[in-house]
Amino acid sequence: MASVIRTTRMATHFVAVPRASLLRHAAPSVAHRVALSMSARRFKSEVIKETEVPVSVYTPDSKGAASGNSDHFSIPVKSGSRAPEPIAEEEETITPLEEKVYKQMPPTMQKMSVFGKVIIVTGGARGLGNHMAQACAEAGAKAIVIFDANQDLGDEAAAELHQKSGLPVSFFKVDVRDGNAINAAVQNVVDLYGAPDVLVNSAGIADSNIKAETYDPAMFRRLIDINLTGSFLMSQAVGRAMMAAGKPGSIILVASMSGTIVNYPQEQSCYNASKAGVIQFGKSLAAEWAKHSIRVNCISPGYMDTALNKVPALDAQKKIWKSLTPQDRLGAQDDLNGLCVFLASDSSKFMTGSNVIIDGGYTLY
Ligand SMILES: NC(=O)c1ccc[n+]([C@@H]2O[C@H](COP(=O)([O-])OP(=O)(O)OC[C@H]3O[C@@H](n4cnc5c(N)ncnc54)[C@H](O)[C@@H]3O)[C@@H](O)[C@H]2O)c1
Q1: Measuring CA to CA, which of 20, 203, 293, 342 is 20 to 30 A from 237?
Q2: Topology annotation, domain 99-364
Q3: 271 noted as active-site residue
Q4: How confident is the model at residue 63 (pLDDT cuts 50, 70, 90)?
Q5: What is the DSSP letter of 139?
């Protein structure tokens, strides 16, 4: 096209611009130029460099009660840049919510806790499940129950959580593929603590960098069995216990952003399919079990910095994952904690069938 002289960059796309329109924008009139340079000078001389910042604080304790309970003061502004304070290493302690503190909390904060709830966490021996179990202990759980296939890690995790929190914590060595073992274990939980109020299903595995054309069908079936069938078997057993007790409940299935996007650059069709299945299973359960006051929601994490990904073969790919994440990092092991407690708590009681992606912005691009 003759009238197109060049391209100009708009966002990430290159858009063809006609010559006339380019000239209109590139060459302002004399009057326009004068106005522009005057306003530029004015802004230059008006650069604000306050030496103090006036502050008004309104609280019930303020001294100036007569004038609307306000305190007025100024904060001095230091010139020059200051090195940021080093961030203190957080000490890993677990402080369970005490009843007397709970009773003093305003209703909104009480609803955001899981006070008095019995919570089962699968895959709670390590990683994301372990951290969500800790968060539930802090947020008021009556008892925490860990289901995991790893005997040593599970035992260790339960002992540590009990020792740090003082709460009743049990560990059941259960493989989420084993329906009979799950049913027996859930019945035991009911006998010990009463029917569960919450299930957090975090047990799962990942196979990465396997091309679909060479995927071993036995491996494919195994992964689907753990990630998808395991979610079903756990939900069924816990859902039945909730229904039998006539208790409302919350089921939280840990899916993945891989359930709605295809990861790059690793090929992992089976994992992605399994998590898409978990999300759609969760939505189906949510619709079926709303009449029993059982809510079902999914948490879909992006790339998280857990043992699941601490594989030398993934080191180079991790750099790519990080670079494609707007927050420029992998999620920390405790980055799901707040969302988990929220979904387990009564503050999310109108929420069911949702799939919440929590990924540092990865799926924005
Ligand atoms: N780490 C990530 O980047 C990431 C991202 C998205 C989703 N997820 C999902 O989050 C969940 C937790 O992942 P993680 O990173 O904490 O992994 P992890 O490997 O650190 O922990 C998983 C836990 O599940 C247990 N487990 C595995 N198979 C089991 C089985 N058959 N029965 C019972 N327990 C079993 C393991 O023993 C382990 O304790 C998984 O479902 C995973 O798919 C993880």
Answers
A1: 342
A2: Rossmann fold (3.40.50)
A3: yes
A4: low
A5: T
- Which H/E stretch holds residue 218? helix 217-224
- The CB of 70 under 6 Å from ligand 1? The reply is no
Residue 16's H or E segment, with its range, is strand 13-18
* Angle at which helices 127-138 and 337-344 cross, to 10°: 60
Active-site residue, 293 included: no
Rounded to an integer, what distance in angstroms lies between the CA atom of residue 253 and that of residue 232?
A: 10
pLDDT value, residue 60? 67
pLDDT of 357: 98
165, 250, 256, 258: the active-site residue: 256
* pLDDT score recorded for residue 83: 52
118 pLDDT more than 70: yes
Verify whether ligand 1 is closer than 6 Å to residue 336 (CB atom).
Answer: no
Tell which one of 205, 279, 300 to mutate to probe ligand 1, the residue whose CB is within 8 A of the most ligand atoms.
205
Q: How do residues 26-55 score in pLDDT, each as one tens digit?
A: 333 333 333 333 333 444 445 566 788 777
Helix (H, G, I), strand (E, B) or coil at 325: coil
Helix 151-165 to helix 127-138 angle (10° resolution) is 20
**Mean confidence (pLDDT) of the chain:** 85
Q: Report the residue among 128, 161, 322 best suited for mutation to probe ligand 1: largest number of ligand atoms under 8 A from its CB.
A: 128
Across 31-45, 58-72, 108-122, 190-204, least confident range: 31-45
